[in-house]
Amino acid sequence: RIMVLSPHPDDETLCCGGMIQQARLAGAEVYLTFMTSGDGFEFDAAFDFPLYSALGGNPERDGDGVLAGNVPSFAANGLRGGQKLYPPNAHLVRFVNNHDTNRIMSDVNGDPVRARAAAVFELTVPGTPVVYYGEELGMKGDKGGPPWYDAYRREPLPWNANLKGMGQATWFMPPDANNKPNSGISVAEEDSKPDSLLSLYRTLGALRMSHPALRSGSYDLPTLPNDARDLYVLRVWKGSELLIVAINFSKSPITWTPGNIGTIGGTTFQTVGKPVISALVEQKDAAITFQPGGYAIFQDASF
């Protein structure tokens, strides 16, 4: 007996129709269970495609979205727009790429600095972040030509450096694949490196798990003075915990002087201190300079 659990009613046909047919020809009993009817109303969650459009631009073209350095103010404006677009209690799923878009590393034209900034955004953004397999390694993926098209965005996860051996899927490895053997992009090559993209994703995941404010807190996106207006700043808080996420998606350095935080949600907070995680950031006295792609996450306690 075989049961196929399908998120949508077409997935059992598109993804495993051949296996189902072989099982039936062999005399097996096959049961199909689908979780939605495809109209999007069964789950209390919605994929925030408008925000993705601001972040990634055209899903079939690279380098034209916020994450690649274009119109950096759209990152905060995309979240502000969501506050008006969706009901107050809507549960939103946020992402920077998926199986129907070009992969984030391709979308930022292979820039590892911007891929890291995208990771910080994704794993600190309000809602539920969804990591598309392989983005945590830096896999590339652009839509290809016929007959495979989207398969180039869905190449097998590179577990091993040589793309061979135990556990390594090999179902789609054409000569023009986006991801090559021994490229430095694999679980085996990144697993033990503290400075790898995989390690950053793990660090950000642990940070999100350990701070309730990042998972279910209230948030706002303060409007900054003109000289820092392109800096993405997100403030999330819950009870006496406050975290401030700042990312420079622009193509020029940005200097920001936070000043006193004041009272948020009925709790008074101190001025931002040293970041708990940062890159390409220099803090001098009260001023903080972010290089392009630079980011910092600050944690503050109430008093």
Estimate the mean pLDDT confidence.
90
Helix/sheet category: alpha/beta
Low-confidence stretches: none
| β-strand amount | 15-25%
Distance between the terminal alpha carbons, to the nearest Å? Answer: 61 Å
Radius of gyration of CA atoms, rounded to a whole number: 21 Å
Number of helices: 9
The protein's oligomeric status is: single chain
Largest sheet: 6 strands, antiparallel
Principal-axes shape call: globular
Task: Work out the helicity level.
Answer: 10-25%
**H/E series:** EHHEEHHEHHEHHHEEEEEEEE
Overall strand count: 13
Task: Give your account of this protein's structure.
This protein has helices at 11-14, 17-25, 49-56, 74-85, 104-107, 112-122, 187-190, 197-210, 212-216, and strands at 2-6, 30-34, 46-47, 92-94, 128-129, 218-220, 231-238, 241-248, 254-256, 262-264, 267-269, 275-284, 287-301. By secondary structure, the chain is an alpha/beta fold. The strands form four sheets. Strands 6, 7, 8, 9, 12 and 13 form a six-stranded antiparallel β-sheet that branches. A three-stranded parallel β-sheet has the order 3-4-5. The longest helix has 14 residues, at 197-210. The mean pLDDT is 90.
